[in-house]
Write a structure and sequence with these properties.
With 300 residues, the chain is α+β, with helices and mostly antiparallel strands. The protein has nine helices and eleven strands.
Length: 300
């Protein structure tokens, strides 16, 4: 089986005839994810190096005379309309800055939900940025970030740099320099609902471990991928025995460090370049090759 390769898109926004925009929303992977016990404000502290990668949801937004914002969806399941983060972001932007404006949204999802890839949060961030551009809003970036924070803890991540160290509850971002990389991402069929994973974590909470020295990440990933930690790993395995089975099968077949992104259920193996990623893909069991996609670091 030939590897599916999702290559980087150079520009996030593309103008459409008639005044609309085509917009790309990248997935993310958590290279190293540290999580601490629940805080009094009911959030968990996190400390993670995170990078956007070249797997994208894509949507088109066009001006509309209908006062009701409209959305259609293809690809992976978008969930209920009322909980769709892209639509919620559009309403938040209109309510804050442009009450007379309306749009039609056509969303195509390549990033499945429940895999720890941040698709919904990325859609929301892309919508915030796109509407600021489409409606020619003269709005400070800090205000857009505030809207992102209200939509979800991970949304500011996708308004920020392509790689960042994320702390606080996810809202504090510091740009990070990470060596160029590829990754084989396995989109496990098992779902891991984030609340379920955190509840499992809270049954056996850990103190936050030490973070990697940021300087290490400037070297090729083959020199540091075996040092990566995700403190939600055991909780995710508890919530989803099917994920644990896939993880163990993949680790045995590859004899390479297999990592979980976010709260799961997507797994990934880092590679220094595309050929190394293709070689890793070639050693995977055929049933898991069908679930895999090769991505690279996103440039924006």
């Amino acid at each position: 089986m030939d590897a599916r390769i999702s290559r980087p898109v150079e520009h996030r926004f593309q103008r459409l005839h008639g005044g609309g925009l085509r917009v790309y929303a990248p997935a993310k992977i958590n290279l190293n994810l540290l999580v601490g016990p629940l805080r009094p404000d009911r959030y968990h502290p996190v400390d993670s190096f995170v990078c956007h990668v070249s797997l994208y949801d894509r949507f088109e937004i066009r001006p509309s005379s209908n006062p009701k914002l409209q959305i259609s969806c293809t690809g992976w399941d978008c969930g209920e309309e009322r909980s769709n983060l892209a639509l919620r972001a559009a309403y938040a932007m209109r309510n804050a800055f442009a009450r007379s404006k309306s749009v039609i949204i056509s969303l195509h999802k390549e990033i499945p939900a429940g895999r720890g890839l941040g698709g919904g949060s990325s859609d929301a961030a892309a919508m915030v940025s796109a509407l600021a551009r489409l409606w020619r809003l003269d709005v400070p970036f800090e205000q857009l970030m505030k809207i992102g924070e209200r939509l979800g803890s991970d949304v500011p991540l996708f308004l920020g740099p392509p790689c960042a160290r994320m702390t606080g509850r996810g809202e504090v971002l510091e740009p990070a320099t990470v060596h160029d990389f590829h990754a084989v991402v396995v989109l496990c069929k098992a779902l891991c609902r984030t609340p379920d994973v955190y509840r499992a974590f809270d049954q056996h909470p850990q103190e936050m471990g030490p973070q990697l020295d940021a300087a290490v990440l400037k070297d090729p990933p083959s020199t540091w991928r075996d040092k990566l930690v995700n403190q939600l790993s055991q909780a995710a395995r508890t919530v989803s025995p099917a994920l644990a089975d896939v993880w163990d099968t993949l680790s045995k077949a590859l004899d390479e460090p297999v990592c979980l992104t976010g709260s799961g259920s997507a797994l990934f193996v880092l590679a220094d370049d595309q050929q190394q990623a293709i070689d890793i893909f070639g050693r995977m069991p055929p049933a898991l090759q069908e679930l895999a996609v090769i991505v690279s670091a996103n440039p924006w």
